[in-house]
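TL;DR need structure tokens for one chain.
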Amino acid sequence: MLKGSLLGSWFFAACAFFLVAPAAHAWGCKGHETVALLAEAHLTPAAKAMAFKILNANPIDPSLSRYCKDPGLDAFADASTWADDERQVKPETGAWHFIDIPRGAPESILGQFCPPAAGCVTTALAAQIEILRDRNRSPQARAEALRFVIHLVGDIHQPLHDATNNDRGGNCVPVEFFGHAPRETNTTAESYSPNLHGVWDTSIIDRLSPGPQTPQQLAQRLDENFEQQESGWNSETINFNQWAWEGHQLAESTAYGRLPVNVAIEKPLDIQSCADDHHISRRMLELNEDLEDDYQSAAAPVVEEQLAKAGIRLAALLNSLWK
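>> reply
TL;DR here they are.
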């Protein structure tokens, strides 16, 4: 079976960051689908029945433009990427996908980076869970809430959705990845690809195995590899702030910390694009970050564990709702 101070500057910078959601789809199609498939296999019969009842009673609008088009997915796995498509329709949900904790910020002020007006991944998860608990809410509201939860649990486990350095979670850090040199994709916004965020979303996952792997195969492999840890993750107290801080620390130690060239911690500023903070993306471009085997070897185990952890924690969360 599948198994008025520095604090003040941080606060205002965080508020500004929520206005601009990361451009990439966290974990990409394969990553999100893998999390959902792993979670689905660990749902109790009661939780699985309730999840599919809610999703099937109010299917995804067929007119919604879908970025991920993998065939053969059931309603639960297909729901895992819906929230990225939905934010094109409801841009106000964009801030729900991340929490921009500035590099160097202490855990004790984590709440400062989630202003009530915009929200963030931790408060969005809590709000959607309350909708799921309320049987008086409409079928559409509960189906959408479940789709958000499936997706956002994946998002919060992507370390660069829990950290920023005036760089939109690494979106403004151009990198070369195994010979693919960064190129400017938007001259006004000074955006580049590949960039650090995109590498963590998709590129590292794509190189996890010698040949192409389906989400089902990746979920199976992660389930087997992390079997010993799964019972511990399953029995943890559900704490969204703790998950976000854990991701932030991994961003510090690995996503940024294992880069070939050290990236200094920026003083948090109000930025709207990669052209801000004295042209941060072009300054980062000058570092000539070249990510090869050493970086992949450091990052891949973190990515694998975060995907596995997200799947098990998602299952535990839903199992706790529908016993």
